[in-house]
Amino acid sequence: MTVFIALLPAYILSIFYRSFLSVIAGPVMADLGIGPAAFGLLGAAWFIAFALAQFPVGWALDRVGPRRTVAVAMAIGSAGAFLFAQASGPLSAGIAMALIGIGCSPVFMSSLFLFARTAAPVRFGLLTSLFIALGSLGNIAGAAPLAIVAAHFGWRGAMTAMAAAFLAATVLAVMLVRDPPPRPASAAPDEGLLQGLASILALKPLWLLAPLTITGYAIVATARGLWIGPFMTQVHGFDAVAAGHAATTMAAAMIVGAFIYGWLESRTGRAKAIVTWGTLLTALGFVLLALSGQNSHLTAVALFSLIGAAGFTYAILMAHARQFFPEHLIGRGMTFVNFLFIAGAAAVQSASGWFIAEQRAAGLDAARTFANLHWAFAALLLVSVAIYALAPPKPVKW
Q: Cβ distance 80 to 103 under 8 Å?
């Protein structure tokens, strides 16, 4: 409970900042004078900084503990949050998003580190899923509520309020987070940053998990965080608030999916099967969205919700990967996997912005452009899950 009370508010904000841009895309692009490609890079800046920070975060969790790691990083993130609200152009906005990414980078990993060090291994998947599900309230906050507040006070006013919330969450985390008891002395090597990374890369099963780790979360996060708003406004003529409600529906479905996946994993222990079938269902959702998403706004919202619920396998894939890490590399191992999740999101967000800009420059309308994007998402998921099918469900001797 202490972990939840201390770090859940910060994690809610972390989820908010990776998903809010789609809802205020129009006024942000107009105010900063940017197009789709630069907008994609703006979203990617958060993920790039977050991903690169995972390596020092993993080392710091193992060596200095979560308390100081969280305190330093979230102080940086608080400064970035206030800077974004005052950004005058794409450069300052991009720097601000990167600083926020650094601030958010240790929050989830510190929670997982504390779960792994203080709870029974069989409860890791359930605790992680619950934490992610509750943290996904940030997805809700970054949807219709943000659209409504921004409509009344402007996007800068809304983001100033969120920056104040980030500072408050920083103070709460610093006050309540405590480092776990030190590990008992063992024969395990006390590996440094590079040595630990080399040991992690030597774990062969991770290479089979890597493609889906890179693409699975990234695609769902990009659909929710960048493009559901523009899709609903440009293809179905929604205004900003109505598009925010559509994003809220998808966000709620993601929360439901996280709870269901956590329950299934705790009951069956079959993380690999859950992730495989969930990914296949997500790919099917994108195929159907490409085929019929432009025909009806109700169909589109329903399919985005299916994608959100089925595609939110993040926690279960993390629980699958966690089984392969030795005790002395838990912090670095989990942050490496999280690096793959977030680096994939940075790449997909940036590439998707470029993809849409190129499609529109070629003369395609919004409906055809987004349909092509959804076909590409489905193809990436199918290739990744085919490789993942070769991974062992549990640790084996190679």
A: yes
Compute the distance between CA of residue 79 and CA of residue 75 in angstroms, rounded to an integer: 7
- Give the contacts of 130 (CB within 8 A, at least 6 positions apart): 258, 259, 262
CB atoms inside a 10 Å sphere around CB 151? 16
Token digits of residue 257: 């999916």
Residue 397 clears pLDDT 60, i.e. is over it: no
What is the tens place of the pLDDT at every residue in 155-206?
A: 999 999 999 999 999 999 999 888 877 665 554 555 555 666 677 777 788 8
Q: What pLDDT does 72 receive?
A: 94
Out of 24-28, 72-76, 183-187, 265-269, pick the least confident: 183-187
C-alpha torsion sign, points 317, 320, 325, 327: positive
157 versus 121: the higher-pLDDT residue is 157
Q: How far apart are CA 174 and CA 16, in angstroms?
A: 20
Q: Which residue matches tokens 């996997």? A: 337
pLDDT exceeds cutoff 80 at 367: yes
Comparing CA positions, the residue from 87, 72, 79, 90 lying closest to residue 163 is: 79
Say which range, 33-42, 56-65, 329-338, has the weakest mean pLDDT. 329-338
Say if residue 27 is exposed, middle or buried (CB neighbours under 10 Å; 0-12, 13-18, 19+). Answer: middle
Euclidean distance between CA atoms 190 and 199, whole angstroms:
12
Tell me, what's the pLDDT at 187?
45
Name all domains of the chain by residue range, CATH numbers in brackets: 2-178+203-388 (1.20.1250.20)
Tell me how far apart the alpha carbons of residues 320 and 284 are, in angstroms, rounded to a whole number. Answer: 23
Is the separation of the CB atoms in 209 and 388 below 8 Å? yes
CB contact burial 31-61 (16+ within 10 A = b; e otherwise): bbebebbbbbbbbbbbbbbbbbbbbbbbbbb
Are 279 and 391 spatial neighbours (Cβ–Cβ below 8 Å)?
Answer: no
Task: Please tell me the distance from the alpha carbon of residue 192 to that of residue 393, in angstroms, as a whole number.
Answer: 29
pLDDT for 189: 53
